[in-house]
Amino acid sequence: DRCVDTVFWGGGTPGLLMAKDLQRLGSAILKKITRPPIEWTVELAPSTVKKEKLKVLRDLGVTRISMGVESFSDRFLKTLGRQHSQRQVFQAIDTINDLGFENINLDLIFSIPGQMIDDWLSDLKQAIRISPQHISTYCLTYEEDTALFMRLSHGKIIKKPKEEDASIYEITRATLEDAGYNQYEISNYAVDGFECLHNKNAWRLYDWIGFGPSAASQYNGRRFANIASLEQWLEGIEKGQPIIIDDIRLNAVILATDCLIFGLRMNRGVNAERLQSRFPEINFSGLQPLWEKLSHDKYIVIMDNKNIRLTSRGRLVADRIAVEILEAFDALKQVSKQFVK
Q1: HEC string of 243-311?
Q2: What are φ and ψ of residue 84, in 5° steps?
Q3: Which residue in 117, 249, 272, 335 is deepest, having the highest Cβ count within 10 Å?
Q4: Does the model's pTM come out above 0.85?
Q5: For 93-137, what is the HEC assignment?
Q6: CB 56 within 8 A of CB 65
Q7: How many other C-beta atoms are found inside a 10 Å radius of the C-beta of residue 185?
């Protein structure tokens, strides 16, 4: 009974579906919503980009293609275990452009083992030459139970020091901004008018509904996820009783904390007056000592006594600042009943 502003197919590889299945899935969505979404993103791996699939997506009303390029080097793609090649990347981009998509994002990864700064700059410059409307850059993370993590654990590859990651991050920001890409979130850059609306909704902690195994939702005062097991998920769907995990009833404290943490990831930061208006039951004045400390350490700036933003220095340690915000909220709850009015 609500308008759906954005749709995002991702967090996996929807491009593996055949064209007829993409058509079936998209049609099912369109039948359930009252009007076409403002933004509809589909994540594609370069090796899955085919003309017949893109035609289906275009006809459904998909407005945005997000492609996991990761690197333009075959050597580093092999290191990452990706299934595509540099040649497939260029072919995919040509096909996407030929089909008329005018909102394209490229994902890139830095700090790959063996990758030097010149290698990374080469990837960035290649992306800039392609002229997508949006570029996302991520520092490589080593997830447990992955081939990369096992190689790291056995000493076959060496993780780059954090200081080097920080230096690459700063160079990335400067290079992309010089090319006309505005950083609007810690890992995301866009030309004017092409910020990802779907992700901004999530960072601002409004509602979203996730479908499929492992998909997460925040809706109607709850935050929950679907079970990861495909078999169990299907069983629940067939019985009309979806299997839900990590079901949390949201309250003002949870949402206000997350609004601060995720809002600060965005370059615009957080407007303290709007936050207070959205959560009138929370006494945010108790956080003033934390803001003063972070300001003194040059991690944040406070504009007009209300707009709180991370500095360039602060964006390098955003996760640490998030922990401090959590700890400050917990301390306030412990010592003051006035924290929640």
Answers
A1: CEEEEEECCHHHHHHHHHHHHCCECCCEEHHHHHHHCCCECHHHHHHHHHHHHHCCCEEEECCCEEEEC
A2: -110, 170
A3: 272
A4: yes
A5: HHHHHHCCCCCEEEEEEECCCCCCHHHHHHHHHHHHHHCCCEEEE
A6: no
A7: 19
